[in-house]
Amino acid sequence: MFAQKPQVEDIDEDALEVHAPKKAAAGVKAVTVALERGLAQAGVARTVRGMLRINQRGGFDCPGCAWPESITGARKPAEFCENGAKAIAEESTLRTVTPEFWAQHSIAELEGRSEFWLGSRGRITEPVVIRPGETHYSPISWGEAFELIGEHIRATTPDRCVFYTSGRTANETAFLYQLFARSLGTNNLPDCSNMCHESSGFALNPTIGVGKGTVSLEDLHHSELVLVVGQNPGTNHPRMLSALVEARKNGGKVVAVNPLPEAGLMGFKDPQSVAGVVGGGEKVADEFLQIRVGGDLALFQALGHLLLAEEERNPGTVVDRSFVQAQTEGFEAYREARRTLDWEETEAATGLSRGQIEKVAQMLIASKSTIICWALGLTQQPHSVNTLKEIVNLLLLQGNFGKPGAGACPVRGHSNVQGDRTMGIWEKPSERFIAALEAEFGLPFPREYGYESVETQHALEAGEVDVFVSMGGNFLSAASDTEHTRAGLKRTGLTVHVSTKPNLSHIAHGRTSLILPTLGRTDVDDKHPGGRQFVSIEDSMSVVHSSQGRLRPVSEHLLAEPVIVARMAQAALGEDHPIDWRAMAEDYDVIRDHISRVIPGFEDYNTRVRTKNGFVLPSPPRDTRTFATAIGKASFTVSPLEYLTAPAGHLILQTLRSHDQYNTTIYGLDDRYRGISNARRVVLVNPEDLAELGFEDRELVDVVSVFKGEERRAQSFRLVAYPTARGCAAAYYPEANVLVHKDLVARESNTPGYKAVTIRFERRAGGATTRGAAGGKQPLSFAGVPKG
Hints:
Layout: E1 2-3, E2 17-18, E3 25-26, H1 28-53, H2 82-92, E4 96-97, H3 99-104, H4 107-110, H5 115-119, E5 123-124, E6 128-130, E7 138-139, H6 142-154, E8 161-165, H7 171-184, H8 198-208, H9 217-221, E9 225-229, H10 233-236, H11 240-249, E10 253-257, H12 263-266, E11 267-269, H13 274-278, E12 282-283, E13 287-289, H14 296-313, H15 321-327, E14 328-329, H16 331-337, H17 343-350, H18 354-366, E15 370-374, H19 376-379, H20 384-397, E16 407-410, H21 417-422, H22 431-441, H23 453-461, E17 467-471, H24 475-478, H25 482-490, E18 494-499, H26 504-507, E19 512-517, E20 535-538, E21 543-547, H27 561-573, H28 581-586, H29 588-598, H30 605-608, E22 615-616, H31 620-623, E23 634-635, E24 651-656, E25 661-662, E26 665-666, E27 670-671, E28 676-677, E29 682-685, H32 687-693, E30 700-707, E31 710-721, E32 728-732, E33 757-763
Parallel strand pairs: 1-31, 3-11, 4-5, 8-17, 9-10, 9-15, 10-13, 14-23, 15-16, 17-18, 18-19, 24-32, 29-31
Antiparallel strand pairs: 2-28, 6-7, 6-19, 11-12, 20-21, 21-22, 24-33, 25-26, 27-28, 29-32, 30-31, 30-33
Helix pairs in contact: 1-2, 6-27, 7-27, 8-20, 14-17, 14-18, 14-20, 23-25
């Protein structure tokens, strides 16, 4: 059994306080917290300058989520949310990590620190290196750093080099990065998409011909029915709440489907409206289905069954027959598969009553334009791809593509995770893409598939990676099976991290390791012969727009990401390489010109990206109601019923974010909407499950996961009674990632099963309960929290 290393705690987990969950998100408190974080880290001038430019035309794109801004109307003065403000505060901070920091702190000491402690140290100011046998990072010049990278790459083979990237990398950087890897001769390009929405692409591409969403922000505003499934917009995409409230004001309805009664699914206090400041806020969800983790496939099969049954009773009232006949295939097989339904098993799988499901089915029947939104709650289970295909079935049934207010809406995380994939960050490139690259650059590029993230973990553990480069991100904390991944990274010959702040991946370093400090999204990028440069971003709804930082960097030693990639390429491939890396590093227009000739939809890129709102990439399902699949039509599919079950004495765990974090970046220790303060090592469990398992609220336990006969252990977690769905539990990542076996993945997409972990609890010695909200062990009241 692999156990998680005990930490030298910089977080006092015994300071845990628990309050009743909130019933609405945002409000004045959100504004207060946002300002406090900004002022504490960046000061008044930088905070004000930054906040005035976030998501504004001519400003910079928020480095947080990928939620879009309007391209048809005016933008709000504060076009950002609380967590966006926290992201800006983290990046624009005046706290710095200088060479003195690395001299003062050995790797042995830093291994005991938490992600929160490391990230709160500030921005890295100079490149640093650690070599075999050394105990501390020390300064290195940029020239020496690139020379070291080139030496290590040339000393091995392309298949033993891996190039990881996070979703905050801009389009220009991403294109250069994949071009560098493929110029070396590898498609080893794992990215954070592998860990989050990969299942969405594997479901959407074969069924509707595009792996992206098919709606606009305006579609959401005017939809008659929006289903928000497996998603917590109050924390992860707070500006989405404005769109949902706008839909309701226009007569639409919203259904929330989630194992936890999240505040943002119940109410929204818009701080830019009178009701949000002095009133009780706006209602968000008309219906809330508190589904069991992993029960969504059963739910959508049941909804399909009910819609088809109503169509049989009243022909022509539910199914869009002309659309189905002209634009789809597989309908008859789907109809036959959904003809009957085992309601007892459906209720067991979902944790919902037949009456609840039938009520939502009636809402679907009444709606003439439906949007289904989803996020990681649906994409990180063994049967995720089939679940999402079932959503496509439901949308196809009523013709909910290519008409206003209708479509599929996978809500992406990082602000350019979708753009990275568009730019070619993918281990499985299409023949069309490789051929276009070859035509543009006159070089051969590899076609053999490379490693995605889980395959990278296996290669690291097997000692088959000599060079691991991370363009942003935090692979160790983002990946599953933390301790195995840590051990694999340490087997690597060279790890290279292009980063803004310290993180745990820097501490789990290869035998030689470099940390290369880069400009952030908010920083001015003006060290170029032609002057100030800008980059571009693709949001969650396929809008490409410019982003230009406005703040003076905290150090003169920082380089922009495109410059770092170009100089790595020059060092590894030689100055006489046919691709002019220097030209692209000096003028990003040169990169965009290349992109315009390689990637469809980016024609005349440099002109269009300079327009006020940028431009929208083409989407056949949305634009022309056509589907670029292998057969030229959209496809209904048939999947068997699957759901997650746990043996006696066990629960199904899902990992999730707190309100004080974005992905692996921890902003603070308060999960305000869920009522958790001053701690992160907690497990949220239904009070009835706690009693049935023989444990008490606030008891200290080890959490043990079980997968294919192997166990993983996370030590010293507090149990917190919480109104989760029965049989389910929730814990924060990255702390809980140690429990997720790397082979627990979604079929087809290979996405880690962060929402499908079978766990049990073991008592720890001295595991007394801790104080509650007012001191002492306080029982929680869940009055007013919607029940499933």
